[in-house]
Design goal:
This protein is 53% helix and 11% strand. It is of the alpha+beta class and 455 residues long. The chain is globular.
Length: 455
């Protein structure tokens, strides 16, 4: 079969697979499928969206991805953007069996993103048409470049994208600014006060107390993008719009980050199940697709394996298979709707399954395996540690001084780690250019020694 036939032949299987998925209980918004060149696949995988705001950092990521691809370390079969409609881009270099499997995989993702509560909450706040929404952001930034010049716009993007993970997903996307004044103290109206006031009814009223301004922020603020957009002393409107655009896109990306294991596992479970039931797929293509499935969900092998090296496809797929086997499909759907990776791993990755999947840390030598650690709670936390706080250090705004100095504090006790001081300084220098006042960050280094970085 020619490459052109493989590229286009899979389209005949989209409709039958969609109908089979619906009969199997999956519910999803329409998905627009498109086959695109590998170079474009890498671009949208790196940028995160087909059209996105321009910035040099995406070029750096693209070069890294290109090197990995040419060294044979990575192959991108598809990139999916949830929404209504969803958008799925398939690599034009895929074979027919690859694309049939990928189509079924995408339908699993579409079911997950429509029904998972975290996805629904974030998409309702941002937009169900994220591809078009992000393209609007890109046009907005292009207009800013034409009006204010590339150098000024890039300065703002440097700061905003350096903080793109520093959002507070527990707060709404559209937040009000802090109250300007502290709440007035409540006056207790009791019998004693009334009788005391009646002793001198003609007495002068005590002078009214002047209302006190609330501190900024009134509490430690984790959403650095929101805070800079709203409280930077001299931020212009177009600069504020860029910060808010980056923040919106971060709200869109967060569910993808926070449900990666269960989402990829759910899509893998369903592509395997749908292919088994798809009697309209020729036998040889089915066999080729199953080989592709085995490659996707294989565990990562190494002489010494640690929990952080697991393949999320393999782990998620194995967990969903075990849940469906033990609790049934309806129970699995309830878990899919309600959980994120934190609750999914803690509640459903059992010691028995972890041992079966060889997820505990072990050493391989001379064909013999020796388990180094079998603490299931420690395994859970090792898997989840990179996911806390959107994968970013826990840094919050503590105070804005009278002279405008911005004081930040790193909660290293919660993070359990120090910061790379040189990298942190570079981020603060980006931020200083838009805050336009001194900035101080309190943190510790990798050795736990306290440091104050001032720019």
């Amino acid at each position: 079969m020619s490459q052109a036939e493989a590229t286009n032949g899979w389209r005949a299987y989209v409709k039958p697979l969609e109908e089979l998925a619906e009969r199997s209980g999956l519910t999803f918004y329409p998905v627009d499928f498109e086959a695109v060149p590998d170079s474009f696949m890498m671009e949208i995988a790196v940028y995160g969206l087909p059209v996105r705001m321009p910035h040099w950092s995406f070029g750096v990521r693209y070069i890294y991805q290109l090197i990995q691809h040419r060294m044979g370390h990575s192959k991108i079969f598809e990139v999916v953007f949830p929404g209504n409609p969803g958008h799925a881009y398939l690599a034009s270099s895929n074979g027919l069996a690859d694309n049939i499997l990928v189509t079924a995989h995408v339908l699993g993702h579409a079911d997950f993103s429509r029904n998972n509560l975290l996805f629904k909450r974030c998409h309702e706040q941002v937009s169900e048409r994220i591809v078009e929404h992000a393209a609007s952001h890109a046009r907005q930034i292009q207009q800013a470049i034409e009006s204010y010049g590339m150098e000024r716009v890039e300065t703002v993007l440097d700061a905003a994208l350096a903080l793109e993970q520093h959002v507070d997903i527990d707060k709404p996307l559209r937040r009000e600014r802090y109250p300007e004044y502290l709440p007035e103290p409540k006056i207790v109206d009791d019998e004693f006060r009334r009788r005391f006031a009646a002793l001198d009814p003609d007495g002068a009223e005590p002078p009214a107390e002047q209302r006190k301004r609330a501190p900024i922020p009134p509490h430690p603020e984790r959403d650095l993008l929101w805070f800079i957009a709203n409280y930077a002393p001299e931020l212009e409107n177009w600069e504020r719009d860029i910060f808010l655009a980056v923040r919106e896109e971060s709200f869109y990306f967060y569910p993808l980050f926070a449900t990666q294991i269960m989402n990829e596992g759910w899509a893998s479970y369903w592509h395997a199940r749908l292919l088994r039931e798809a009697d309209f797929v020729p036998q040889q293509i089915y066999v080729d697709a199953i080989k592709c499935h085995s490659d996707v969900v294989r565990p990562i092998a190494a002489d010494q394996q640690v929990a952080l090296a697991v393949n999320p496809y393999h782990l998620g797929f194995s967990m969903w298979e075990k849940i469906v086997e033990n609790e049934g499909l309806e129970a699995a759907r309830r878990i899919m709707q309600q959980d994120d990776d934190f609750s999914f791993i803690r509640n459903h990755l059992t010691r028995e399954l972890a041992e079966e999947l060889k997820l505990f840390r072990y050493l391989g030598k001379d064909g013999q395996l020796r388990v180094l650690d079998m603490d299931i709670d420690e395994l859970h936390e090792s898997l989840l540690a990179p996911k806390y706080g959107f994968g970013a250090p826990s840094v919050s705004v503590r105070h804005v001084h009278v002279d405008g100095t911005l004081e930040l504090e790193h909660d290293y006790k919660t993070d359990g780690r120090g910061l790379d001081l040189e990298r942190s300084r570079r981020v603060l220098e980006y931020l200083r250019r838009v805050w336009r006042r001194p900035i101080v960050l309190h943190t510790v280094d990798h050795e736990g020694s306290p440091h104050k970085i001032a720019v």
